[in-house]
Amino acid sequence: MENQIALLDQAKSTLVDLAIKFGPKVVVAVLIIVAGVYAGRSLGRIFDRSLSRINLDPPVRLLLVRLLRLVVLGLFLIMALQNLGVELLPLIAGLGVAGAGVALAMQGVLGNVVAGLTIIFTRPFRVGEYIAVVGVEGKVEAIDIFSTRLSHIDHSIVVVPNRKLVGEILHNYGHIRQLDLSVSIARAADLEPALAAIEVVVAADPCALKEPAPSIGVSTLGSGAITIAVAPWVKVTDYASAGGALNRSIIEKFGVAGIQYPAPPLEIRMAAAGQTTH
Phi/psi zone of residue 155: left (φ > 0), alpha (ψ -120 to 50 degrees), beta? Predict the structure, then answer.
């Protein structure tokens, strides 16, 4: 019993000594971390206002603000550890060895992070633009640190890892696309009426943009047909439906104007004497 009491007294004495020795340092360390949290938030708000002046995309601006807050909090955490008397050099060396192992195990993830930062700073595309890359295409809905999310014409979502976007040939359509339509007529005499009719149809179509100006002209000359290219510009959101609507309007306009389409080709085969044909 006396031994247990002695052990309790010794434990109490040890705890009191530790509290006296490290208590103030722990309190100061906690205050430093709390100050770091508030400093990170304040600097983040200031940084966010500065970034809003250079017209950065909201997701990119949010990511940069979060990175700044983490850096500020990390600096205050180092100050707190130094206040507690923690040797930082061995700790940094240990973290470096552990980080090397983690980096080897997570090459794909880190590659996405590096690629995401590259996209953020080089800005090959922005949220809201329509892009085509690595065999997929769609409107950019979000740019995250690990991946980029696209919305496809068929209302599906395509998630592309960022490392697949960097270093590849990327086609950025922006916010508009050009239709590639064509119509054939049979007679040269119908050329001018056909061009005038197509211009009227395109000008009246609500999806066809006035600027950039549409491209309408003869594309190919065949033995039995004249092909006219019709290439107006439309918004990305109207691209899927605008082509069908324009084709229908052109057909109706040609019917009213009496413009003839090329006759279907005829194939004539001559059978040799003594042979039967089927």
Answer: left
Q: 54-63 contacts: CB < 8 A, separation 24 or more?
A: 57/126, 57/127, 57/143, 58/127, 59/127, 59/142, 59/143, 59/144, 60/120, 60/123, 60/143, 63/120, 63/144, 63/145
Reply yes or no on whether the pLDDT at 63 is more than 80: no
For residue range 175-191, list pLDDT tens digits in order. Answer: 999 999 999 988 888 88
- 121 CB-contact burial (10 Å; exposed 0-12 / middle 13-18 / buried 19+): exposed
**Nearest-angstrom CA–CA distance, 73 and 157:** 35
Catalogue all structural domains in the chain, each as residue range(s) with its CATH number: 10-116 (1.10.287.1260), 122-174 (2.30.30.60), 176-257 (3.30.70.100)
